[in-house]
Specification:
Layout: E1 12-14, H1 22-33, E2 45-53, E3 58-62, H2 75-86, E4 92-101, E5 104-105, H3 114-127, E6 133-136, E7 141-144, H4 158-163
Parallel strand pairs: 4-6
Antiparallel strand pairs: 1-7, 2-3, 2-4, 4-5, 6-7
Helix pairs in contact: 2-3
The structure holds tetrahydrodeoxyuridine.
Tetrahydrodeoxyuridine (THU) binds at residues 40, 43, 45, 47, 63, 65, 72, 74-76, 110, 112-113, 116.
Length: 164
């Protein structure tokens, strides 16, 4: 028997950063600030990510490229892995992502690559708390309230997968 199903992805769009809450605006500003530390001599595409943790810490990361291209790492995973190693038991409250190209913040927001989404959802799952992701462009801001909206059908851990 074939059963057709649908998945609904919910997200909000904002025209300006100041339509976000003050705490979110602060997080976006931190993601913008960290663009200056991007090491992206190959793509000239800078990405900044900022994480607000439940203990009030804000952890930022920028993309770090490498002459051996696949050895580089996206901004999101730089921030997530740093947060995971420094504050292993502290849930994430919110994440903001910003990108610039040749020095100017891009018009439309980027949304994270598949590998970053997988890492984002793992940290969400271990703490059992959905967190919003705010993706910022000059003319549009997109916000999802839960990483699951960015990665339906995600892989969980090996034990969970084996039990399914
Ligand atoms: N990049 C990120 O840091 N985050 C993303 O969400 C997409 C892409 C980086 C990887 C590479 O350094 C550059 O942007 C161009 O792809």
């Amino acid at each position: 028997m074939i059963v057709s199903k649908e998945l609904i992805v919910k997200y909000s769009e904002f025209a300006r950063v100041d339509e976000l809450s003050p705490r979110e605006v602060e997080l976006v500003d931190k993601a913008k600030d960290v663009l200056s530390s991007s090491y992206s001599p190959y793509s000239h595409f800078s990405v900044g990510a900022a994480l607000l943790l439940e203990n009030g810490e804000i952890i930022t990361g920028s993309n770090q490229e490498n002459g051996a291209y696949p050895s580089g790492l996206c901004a999101e995973r730089v921030a997530l892995f740093y947060a995971g190693s420094k504050f292993p038991n502290v849930p994430i409250v919110a994440m903001a992502i910003v990108a610039s190209y040749n020095g100017a913040i891009i018009q439309l927001p980027i949304s994270p690559c598949g590998a970053c989404r997988q890492v984002m959802i793992e940290y969400q799952n271990i703490h059992g708390k959905p967190y919003p992701v705010i993706m910022v462009g000059q003319s549009k801001i997109v916000k999802v309230e839960d990483v699951r909206f960015l990665l339906p059908f995600s892989f969980s851990n090996v034990e969970d997968a084996a039990q399914k």
